[in-house]
Each structure stands twice: as structure tokens, then as C-alpha cells.
Amino acid sequence: MTTGLDFWLRVIEFRGGLVDRSGETGLVLLPAGLDTEFQLPTELDVTDDPDVAREDGATFLGPGHPAIAHAADLLLAQGDVGVIQATSSAQMPDLADLEELARLRFPVAHGRIDLPEPAQRSTLDIVRLGALVRYLVSDEDHYQEQLERYYVVESRLPIADDTAAALLAQKPAEPDPDLILPDVTEAMLAAYQEMDAIATRRRAILARDVAAACQAELDRAQAYYAAALESVAKRRATATADRQAMLDTRAQATRVERARRLEEITAKYRGAHEIVPFRLHLLHLPVVRVQAQVRRGERRYPLELVWMPAAADFAPVRCPACGRHATLDAGKTQLGCISCQTKAPVIPPPRPPAAPVARPDAPPTAPAPAPSAPPVKTARPPAPAAKTAPRKAPAPPRPKELSNRQLHEAGDRLALRLWQAAAERNNRAMQRLIAPDTPMATAYRLFRSDAPAASIGIPITAVLDGLATQSHPHQVTSEYVTLGEVTAAGSMYPFSIVWRELSGRREIVQIVPFRPGIFARYLDANLVRQHSGAGLFEKCPVPMERLEPVAATLWRTSTPRLGLPTTVRALTSWWRMPNPDALTAQFPNMAVAAAFERAACYWGGGGPGGYEAAAQAYEADVEQVRKVGVTVQKLLKLTAEQPW
């Protein structure tokens, strides 16, 4: 059964009806009054399969059926408010394992976390807010979606969706009549504000689809009234004095009518959204609290951590100094975070696209997509006629030595410009920051101005809020690395930007998520999935560019298994290949794609790195994959320092 029919059956059970699910149908008995309310018989078989409905005579309740819509309206009108007291049968890890998990979960700059005291059992309250968001993009275009957000009451910090799902899967406990309910106002407000930010970003994306139609309608109206005014002007030129006054009045009326009509068209495409909360749950969970110490040399700073056994994860923590949700930083005098212990520029949130303002005497404007720019130069060169040297990626140049102050200032400025361009969706500004024939250029080609967000797992609907950075020399090559974190819709996303300086120009080579154990050059796909979740794997955004067969095969096969960073590296190598048609003419697309994935894994650590494993994943012949791999290595000269 689909979600719609299953939802309707659960509503019927809640309202006192009886439901017997059997295969593709369900027997429903409606009590008195409920049958009249839904305008259905007292006893009926229901299904969401049209073939079953036709052959067995069952009532078809598919998407859009009035009964399902009425059930949804009832739920929205009534609301869903309550307290869920959960139990947990999960085993508590010992103190040494808990300490290791804490160090992985909360990396501390200039320090580390120790757990000198045993954990103490306690409870934690989490707010679950659900809402229906309705989008009005134009008079004809309406959309809606359901959003749910989870926030810790005491810290007002968000809980990830997969963590919340694990918590909700626990068996409910017996209600405690003496339970004292906390004040959830601030946590609920934080969840609502995040929903509003998501809806604003989503509406801006939806507005792109109708921008062309709006502009076309404005142009037609403008042309119509321009022709009318031109006709009046021609008639006035040859008219007598008394008729000229009448024609002047008609021209003024035409201008007034033009302004009214253009404003009418503008209002037609003026977007809006409405958030209708319908669910508010308080999750009362058993947890353990541990009094940790953050050590920097002989200095020790106290920090309380909350372990949630049901989700096998820690609750998020705020900075003890400034209260932000940011990576902790053990300073010389206090425990702070990377935001308050360094100069942290703030990214202004992007404004939602304004509806066009029609002016009678000026050309009309319409909501338009973000300015597009030609892709960064990663396109393949034409096939060589004879022996042509393959195009090699430029070796990492050795920049002039930068002082620590110059390094920090340059890295901070570059990171700020990158995320500023992402927040403003400014393709041209971002293009100027990217080094050609690099993973960053490939990410830009795939996602345009959403490339930085997509590269570290930020949902493209999230609004960027703030930024904090620290710059360091690269440990392997002569490039530099800027570590930082960007906050989006209340969540924190650590990142590493690898950049270089060439002839006085600073260029970004790649951006990857940053966690302990994740290095900019050598990526462990398992560690990336553990820390970044499905946003870099099966839930990765869809590319904006239509991919040719080999690139499409790489995308479909590699991304859900090994993650976006490895796929981007493989695509970078593929798009660097001289005369790629020679490979696809000699070998199947699956074998070619497998060889490029294998190369990215072997040199960059994103996966097994063996020919057999790659051939098996792509269902290709291993010998063909090996032959392609030899050719790729001969032409591109891949190394651990240049894995693309």
C-alpha cells in the first residue's frame, strides 16, 4: 500500500473504525457518522491498485482521492500533540569506548577530550515539530511538502534526521503521571525558524521555473501597450487641436491601464509560502551524562556530554564561551570554539528573489534564475590528429613562502569569497575562484553555485548563516589548506578547502568535509559516510548538467557506494582525458567507468582500489578494466599527490 492509503487507514483506526489489511486490499468498517463524514459505505474493501480495484470490485483510494484529502484536513485541524516517553535496551559502551566516540564526535582544536569520571544515568527532552508547507509560486503553480525538525530542549540545537529516526524506533514506556514537562517554547521557535529558512530557499528554487513565463507575459503586455501608445501618437500628429486633447487623455488612460496590467502580472507570479504546524511531540528519553575534561597540555576545562544509547550518538553541544554550535577550541585561557577564538566573518543570508516591479516607463523585469556562467574549463579537447601530447593537469606549483599571518588572511578571504558566492548564488564570482581541471571545477560543472554546499553534504535548500576558518600549510604538497565550518539552517558543517597560489592568483583545488581521519588528499569512504551521512551518497543532489554515457555511469554507480568526493575525482580524470572517444570506441562504457573509479580509489583512498572490485561493481570484464586502467595511467600520470 502507498503512503496515502496507509495514512487514511491509520486515521480511520484512530477515529474508531476497524481495518483488516490483507495483501493489496483492506477491509474497512466505518462506525456511524464516520461513513457520512467521508461519504463512503459502512463496509468496503479499499485498494490503491487500479487493476485490483477493477478486477475485485474494491474501492480505489489513490493519491488525490477526496477521502485522503479530507483525512489530512482533519489531522491538520485537530493537531497532533503529546508526550512520548521512550525506553532503551541498547547496551552502554564502556568508558574507554565512550571516550573514543566522544573524541570522534567532538574534535577539539588544540586539545582533546578525556572522560575521567563514570557516566551517570539521566533524561533528555527533545521537541519534534511537524508542519505542512504550502508554496504559492504563481496563480497556477502550487506545491506542498511535509517538514519535521527535532531540537534538544535544553540546548536548542538540532538533532539529525537519522538520529531522530533511531530514537523514535524505540519502544514507548508506560506514561509517568508525575512527569514535569519543560518549557519547549524556545526549542519550538528554533525548529520553526529553520523550517522558514528551508521554505524560503525552496521557494527561491521553485521561482526559477516560472521566471521565463513571467518575463514572457510581461513582454507581451509591454509590446501590446507600446503599440497602442504608438498608434495614438500617430493619430495625434495629424489630428486637429480639439482631437489632440482627446487623444492625450486616451494616451494617459492607456499608460494607467498599462501600469495596472503589469502590476497584475507581477502579482500573479509573486511567490509566497505558508507553514502550518500540525505536530508537536515531546520525546522524553533515557540518556547518560558524563562530565568530560578538555585538555590542552596541563590545562583542563570541564564539559558535560550527553550520550543517547538509543541512537548510539551524543547530543550536540554549544560552545561554553559564546553559546554557538561550532567546533570546540581549547584556548590558553578558556574553552571556546573556532568561531569565538578566531575572527569569524559572517555570511549574510541571501535575500529571497524579489518579484518584478513593473514601471510604466521602463522595461519590465521578472524573477530570473541566478546568473549563469560558462562552466569552468574542464571540457575535453578535440581528438589529436597525430601524436599529440596528452593534456596533463598542472603540477601543484610551489608558491612563494607566506608568513603565518599572510596564510591565515589569504585563506580566510578565499573561504569567505567562496561561501559568499554560494550564499548569493553568484556563478561568475565563484568561477573566478576555481582552478581548472580540478575536483572543484568538476563540482562547479555539476552543481554551479551549489558546488561548495553539495561537496560537504549541505542540503541545497539550506540557508547559509555563518563561517569560521583557520588556515594551515598542506602536509603533503606545496598547497595550502583552510579548515573551517559553515552553519546552515542551524546545523554545523566542517570543511577543508585546498587552495594554491599561482602567479599571484589564489585558486581553489577542492573542498571536502572535514573530520578527524578525513584528509583532503586521501579520502576514506566509510569515514565520510559515518560523519556526513547520506547527503554525500544516495541523497546527493542531482547534477545540473546532462552527463554523457561514461560520466552518467560513474555517477549512478560510484556516488551511492563511495560518495560524492570519490565520484568527483573520477569525473575530473575522465574529463581530463585526451581523445576520450578512442577509449569508448575500443571498450564498453562500463569498463571505462570502472577503470576511472578504480584509479580514483587507488590513488585517493576512496574505495578498494582493485581492478576486480571495480569490475564487479560495474559488471564489466576485469581484463578490459585493467587495459583501460593502464591507458589512463600512461596518459594522466596519476599519483598520490595528484589523484585526478
Structure description:
The chain has helices at 3-14, 34-38, 50-56, 66-78, 95-105, 161-168, 185-237, 241-268, 404-424, 427-431, 439-447, 451-455, 525-532, 549-562, 564-576, 580-586, 589-604, 611-618, 622-636, and strands spanning 18-22, 25-29, 43-47, 59-60, 80-85, 108-109, 112-114, 120-136, 142-152, 158-159, 272-296, 299-308, 313-314, 328-330, 335-337, 464-473, 480-488, 491-502, 505-513. The protein is α+β, with helices and mostly antiparallel strands and 644 residues long. Among the domains are: 3-78, 2-Layer Sandwich (Dihydrodipicolinate Reductase, domain 2), CATH 3.30.360.80; 404-636, no CATH class. Helix 17 (589-604) crosses helix 18.
Brief summary:
This protein is an alpha+beta fold.
Structural class: alpha+beta
The main β sheet shows up as: 8 strands, mixed
How many individual helices? Answer: 19
- Using only C-alpha atoms, the radius of gyration works out to 30 Å
Strand fraction band? 15-25%
What's the N-to-C terminus distance?
A: 46 Å
Shape annotation: globular
Please describe the topology of this protein.
Elements: H1 3-14, E1 18-22, E2 25-29, H2 34-38, E3 43-47, H3 50-56, E4 59-60, H4 66-78, E5 80-85, H5 95-105, E6 108-109, E7 112-114, E8 120-136, E9 142-152, E10 158-159, H6 161-168, H7 185-237, H8 241-268, E11 272-296, E12 299-308, E13 313-314, E14 328-330, E15 335-337, H9 404-424, H10 427-431, H11 439-447, H12 451-455, E16 464-473, E17 480-488, E18 491-502, E19 505-513, H13 525-532, H14 549-562, H15 564-576, H16 580-586, H17 589-604, H18 611-618, H19 622-636
Parallel strand pairs: 3-4, 5-11, 6-14
Antiparallel strand pairs: 1-2, 2-3, 7-11, 8-9, 8-11, 9-10, 11-12, 12-13, 14-15, 16-17, 17-18, 18-19
Helix pairs in contact: 1-4, 7-8, 11-15, 14-15, 14-17, 15-17, 17-18, 17-19, 18-19
